[in-house]
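Hello again,

I reread your note about wanting to compare the complex against the isolated chains. To keep things tidy I'm splitting this into two emails, and this first one only covers the full assembly. Below are the input lines as submitted, including protein chains and any nucleic acid or small-molecule components. They are followed by the predicted structure of everything together. The single-chain runs will come separately.
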Amino acid sequence: MSYSANYSGSTAKNLNSNFYTVKKKGRFSIGKTILYIFLIALGIICFLPFYFMIINCTHSSVDIAQKLLLIPGLEFLENYRRMTLLVPIWTGMLNSIVIAVSATVLSGYFGALTSFGFAKYKFKGKEFLFAIVLGSLIVPQQIALAGISEVMYSLNLMNNRLALIIPAIANPAMVFFTRYYIQAAVSDSVLESARMDGCSEFRIFNSIVIPMIIPSLATMSIFTFIGSWNSYLLPLFILNTQEKFTMPLMAALAKGVYQNDYGAVYSAIAMSMLPVMIVFSFCSKYIIGGLTAGAVKE
Amino acid sequence: MPGTTQLNILGGGTLLNKLRAGDKYGQYGYIFIAPFFLVLAVFTLFPMLYTLWLSFNSWDGGTIPAKFIGLENFGELLSDKTFRQCLANTVIIWLGNVIPQMIFAIGLASILTDRKTQVKAAGFFRAIFYLPNLVTMASVGLLFYYILDWQAGSLNMLLMKLNVLSEPFYWLQDVTATRGAISFTLWWMWFGYSMIIFMAGIKAIPDDLYEAADVDGANRWQTFRHITIPGIKGSIMYNIVTSVIGGLTIFDIPYVLTNGVGAPLDKAYTLVMYMYNMTIKNMNYGYGATIYAGMFVIVVICVAITFRLLDKKLANN
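Full-complex prediction:
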């Protein structure tokens, strides 16, 4: 190996940087080109379905059925107008926003409260109760349909948007990640001095702990919001009147109503996806950062 | 404090002291976790246990109360051809998705975090690979339903333009193509997510381990095999376990893509779809619950096996 001659003379750091530049300029340029072609091709595969969606919702159904369309057309408003005749898409948007925002707020507040209880107090059976939280993360639970429908009927929550909001209070993933965050970020001495100043425990949580864990709460909340926005199975069987439908149900409704009116259906699909895509294009770094912040704990 | 008085009434001083476990403020632990556990009990634990109990009953969900019939439902489940078909479909679709997903995820993660190559625009690629994971699964199913449409679908038109196909192909009428489309869609949605989890794992590996491997003259494969893989044990475990649970309970995409029936020939019918149709459409709550119970057992066994296998495999490294 050519670089082994330099070995004894230079420090390890220098050697390494030499070593990397040699590789970069020499053997790896063809490999690198292939690598970039591969990455770009994969990127195209990831974006292509969205591209088809965006392009197709701007063309008339006749054009969509007859040719491959690759540039935007002028028919979006026409498609949109036809779609909204039978699909109350903005009602769906409003329902989805109300449900997802309420679920996110409840999940964040009560998740943090529960995490605080686990992180900063000692009590009997604590680890056992925490094991239940963990256990509920790894068993299939959102699909126990017979039991869920029994609960929803007896609480009169069938065809009620609250049925998709209240359960968010118990979000195990929230507690799992936030517990360790509170343990690390909130020191016991802060609690002690607040107690000396006569703060009640509840006030300590509301006005001291919450502000301290806002970054972690915000990141976790993005995922709660997206999860709630995207959920399909539960709304599908709980909601049965159109004026209560969420966006995914509205998109499915558009398919049922318009079948081969491709332009109308594509515009409904696009409207159900665009909000999340717009949010992502503005804060992708933040979202991905949050994902890994949680994952490192594993 | 209202909480304190309540607990004092409940058990007097001694019980409270026991429960506090030496913490003067211990009772607040209970108070703060109470709402969470109340909701967890009502909306998660009870439905789960109630469904498992219903699996020993015959019930149509109506006003006539459920009737206990012991293991009869399970006997039926074991000889149920549709259940077996659904289990096979689910596993095939899952394998068709998870194998390429993990290969792409781990490969891309090591490329994008490589200390030597230093891929340009790594952040951009990371974002675009992850994007499909965020959008609504049901809408993705719908989108692919239309893209795969034999007549008006963009895929057939693209392939015909590129001269790969001479006439339109009926993707969703063909067993392999339908299963393949579901696996592909799931791969498309999830490899970016798994990749990001792996990337976080790789970034947490100390730089000097890689430098030491360089000094020792290890090649890329050896470095990958002996430093990267053991270093991301936790991420591998996390990714595979979540994929087992998610994969065995897949619903949204096959449901939308096959109009809820698992066509063609029930070959794209998954376990949760079968349970949904049995419980909600056929109103057979008892048997629907039995399918849930069967699925529950299968998931728990698979997760346990995964933990076992991975623990051994990864410990050997």
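For quick reference: The two ends of chain B are 55 Å apart (CA to CA).

B.
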